[in-house]
Write a structure and sequence with these properties.
- By secondary structure, the protein is an alpha+beta fold.
- The chain has 3 domains: 40-52 and 276-350, Beta Barrel (conserved putative lor/sdh protein from methanococcus maripaludis s2 fold), CATH 2.40.420; 57-64 and 190-275, Elongation Factor Tu (Ef-tu), domain 3; 74-181, no CATH class.
- Helix content is 25%, strand content 41%.
- The protein starts with 5 loop residues before the first helix and ends with a strand.
Length: 352
């Protein structure tokens, strides 16, 4: 049986005692270390009031205020084209004439028949008084006159249809027919557009419905034009798209100099609320949680986590509706490591 030498017993017992004391000391220090806030070095931002305008930018399309395809109402041969392609025309101006001699001849024939029936009616009126004819014969002649009048009215309406007129002021496009062509009600002669004013159609999220109304001013610019132009909302769709939850909005814009072209793409700016003392903070300073938004405020060198309510957003900042006041210092870095009561050393202050 092996026996430990006496000179080794004392060092061995001493080593065991030191290890026991060391383990006991570590176990006692862990709670203290866990509860003690650590230092944090981070960048900060000082909250200052700023001018802020809540705008929404939408994509739109310039369209004619009025636009139609010019089509004839009856079939016939074109005898005259009375407009110049690309020219402005006035409401009621004749654009095209269709052969109408046959209709005019029919009207003249009916008028002659009517004159004859009127003479017959006059003679029958005298005969009815003396009993020469029955009252029924007299009424039959009156009915024939009324029928002829109806035929004349119909043919006159057909005659009017042989002249195609502009229904509103506008600009005519390129014509698709020539003199001598036989056209029908499905033939598109040309296109008529009213380009002053123009209208711009755009989509707006339904959450902004309460902030817009007819007459509200909007701003826009188009590619190739550096000027910012303005117009006014003319109409708002009563319902939202079930897929996008957007509403269709239409605004009118003046175009007296015809610099704007229908079909162009437009960047539409819809201004909403504006404030001269809004509280804006960098977006990276917001601490997201499952319930609300928070920010780390530095007071007396220590961090406090407070709840904030956000409003509108810009490209890099968010509006704080409540929770912060001017002069507050908030962290913009280290926000995921910061704890309430932690001592914070500011390495850099970001200015607005």
């Amino acid at each position: 049986m092996y026996t430990i030498p006496r000179f080794l017993i004392l060092p061995l017992l001493t080593g065991i005692a030191i290890s026991f004391v060391s383990c006991s000391s570590d176990k006692k220090e862990d709670p203290k270390a866990a509860g003690r806030p650590k230092n944090l070095t981070a960048e900060a931002y000082i909250v200052q009031p700023q001018s802020f305008s809540e705008d929404y930018v939408a994509s739109g399309t310039l369209l004619p205020n009025e636009e139609i395809n010019i089509l004839p109402e009856i079939s016939g041969r074109v005898t005259s084209i009375m407009f110049t392609e690309g020219a402005r025309v006035r409401k009621g101006q004749t654009l095209l004439k269709i052969y109408s001699a046959d209709i005019s001849a029919q009207i003249q024939k009916l008028k002659t028949q009517r004159e004859l029936q009127v003479k017959i009616k006059d003679r029958q009126a005298d005969l009815v008084k003396i009993g020469g004819i029955s009252k029924q014969d007299f009424e039959t002649t009156q009915s024939q006159i009324q029928s002829i009048d109806a035929d004349i009215a119909f043919q006159q309406a057909q005659l009017r249809k042989t002249s195609i007129v502009a229904p509103f002021d506008g600009t005519v496009g390129i014509r698709n027919i020539s003199v001598g062509a036989v056209i029908s009600p499905t033939t598109v002669v040309t296109k008529l557009q009213q380009t002053n004013p123009l209208r711009v159609d755009f989509m707006l999220p339904d959450r902004y419905r309460a902030k817009i109304q007819n007459g509200k001013e909007v701003f826009f610019n188009v590619d190739g034009n550096l000027d910012t132009l303005s117009g006014n909302i003319k109409a708002i769709d009563p319902g939202a798209d079930v897929n996008t939850r957007n509403i269709r909005v239409q605004a009118t814009i003046p175009n007296a100099n015809n610099k704007l072209v229908s079909g162009s793409f437009a960047h539409v700016i819809i201004p909403f609320n504006s404030s001269s003392d809004a509280i804006l903070i960098p977006a990276q300073a917001v601490i997201p949680t499952t319930k609300d938004k928070k920010a780390a405020v530095i007071r007396n060198g220590k961090a406090e986590i407070i709840t904030i309510v956000l409003g509108s957003r810009t490209s890099d900042k968010v509006e704080v509706v409540s929770g912060l006041v001017a002069g507050d210092t908030i962290l913009t870095t280290g926000i995921m490591q910061v704890k309430p009561g932690m001592e914070v050393k500011i390495s850099k202050v970001i200015k607005q």
